[in-house]
Automatic annotation (TrEMBL):
Any Pfam family hit: adh_short
Organism: Columba livia (Rock dove)
Residues annotated as signal peptide: 1-18
Keywords: Oxidoreductase, Signal
Family note: Belongs to the short-chain dehydrogenases/reductases (SDR) family.
GO biological process, one term: steroid metabolic process
SUPFAM superfamilies, sorted: NAD(P)-binding Rossmann-fold domains
InterPro entries per record: NAD(P)-bd_dom_sf (IPR036291), Sc_DH/Rdtase_CS (IPR020904), SDR_fam (IPR002347)
The UniProt record lists the keyword Oxidoreductase: yes
Protein name, per record: D-beta-hydroxybutyrate dehydrogenase, mitochondrial
Length: 348
């Protein structure tokens, strides 16, 4: 087994850390000795792969109303892909869908798509089949991006909170993937699933979200192993904090969720935790609204690489150095040590 500092290079994004030059050979050695795929990128972000041609290839993206999905649709279109942009509010002429339609390009196809609706997903498949210039050639890429975020400690979160987040983040991903897999297999293409660093490590008050993202990661890992025989690559994108860039959390949304959490809690929970503690916690969540990276290019470029590289990584970690180091600590060190370092109140 590679030592920890060897393994650290495996999931590091291609814009990697500027480590000592002598360490660049470490992942390459792992590759030749142990067959570790990540040696393609190296600790310095060295890639041995070459881009595939976008011309003639089509990609479907979910969640294109805003955030990563909206920006990615534009970026892939600019690179020559035909883009099927699934929008939740396309039928209501939402801002994001309207902006993409305004491009008036045959290679930008905007379609109504609620990932929680079997009917709308089936209609999306039919639309893609009818629109592809060469349906027998299949669909090159599927990017499962649609998702929501929420918060709430376990004793405040209801089962409906858990189910609602999972229905979009997890079951939406499964539903869309199963529907489009025959087209992806035909093209020997790519399935790119957007999870999160919280799909591999956890954080207090984020259990609803973490469960959904851990689930997508497990689903993707299983699917990746099943799809090798078909020549299909299944890839995970695990971003860190891009709340400021995506607007996935808003003050109004947090206030609404907070009121529902408090009013839905039992008298015992309200008394034991206290309103003051709860209010401080809500204020903490609001402080995250403008936190994180404001530039989405790290994520967009990693997704683009996953779709265009002849040898894509199985995982990409677009994130700041702090979060990358924390992810390695929380996934490689004993949990007692990781908790002691990062969780208030934890003891060794």
């Amino acid at each position: 087994m590679c030592p920890l500092w060897f393994a650290a290079g495996i999931a590091r994004p291609k814009h990697g850390l500027a480590l000592a030059t002598g360490l660049q050979a470490a992942p390459m050695l792992c590759h030749w000795v142990l067959g570790v795929p990540a040696a393609r990128q190296g600790l310095m972000g060295l890639s041995l792969s070459f881009p595939t041609q976008a011309e003639g290839k089509a990609v479907l993206i979910t969640g294109c109303d805003k955030g990563f999905g909206h920006a990615l649709a534009k970026q892939l279109h600019a690179k020559g892909f035909t883009v099927f942009a699934g929008c939740l509010l396309a039928d209501k002429n939402g801002d994001g869908a309207r902006e993409l339609k305004a491009m008036k390009s045959d290679r930008m196809q905007v379609l109504q798509m609620d990932v929680c609706s079997d009917q709308e997903v089936a209609q999306a498949v039919d639309f893609v089949k009818r629109t592809l210039k060469e349906p027998e050639g299949g669909l090159w890429g599927l990017v499962n991006n649609a998702g929501i975020s929420t918060f709430g400690e376990v004793e405040f979160a209801t089962l409906d909170n858990y189910k609602n987040v999972a229905e979009i983040n997890l079951w939406g991903t499964v539903r869309v993937t199963k529907a489009f897999l025959p087209l992806i297999r035909r093209a020997k293409g790519r399935v790119v699933n957007i999870t999160s660093m919280l799909g591999r490590m956890v954080s207090p008050s984020r259990s609803c979200y973490c469960i959904s993202k851990f689930g997508v990661a497990a689903f993707s890992d299983c699917l990746r192993q099943e799809m090798y025989r078909w020549g299909v690559r299944v890839i995970l994108i695990e971003p860190s904090n891009f709340v400021a860039a995506t607007g996935i959390l808003t003050a109004d949304g947090i206030d609404k969720q907070a009121e529902a959490l408090w009013s839905g809690a039992s008298d015992t929970v309200q008394e034991d935790y206290g309103r003051e503690y709860f209010t401080r916690h809500v204020a903490l969540m609001k402080s995250f609204i403008n936190s994180g990276l404001k530039d989405m290019s790290l994520v967009l470029n990693d997704i683009t690489d996953a779709l265009t590289s002849t040898h894509p990584n199985n995982r990409y970690n677009p994130m700041e150095t702090y979060w990358w180091v924390r992810l390695q600590v929380m996934t490689h060190l004993p949990t007692a040590i990781a908790d002691w370092l990062y969780v208030p109140g934890a003891t060794l």
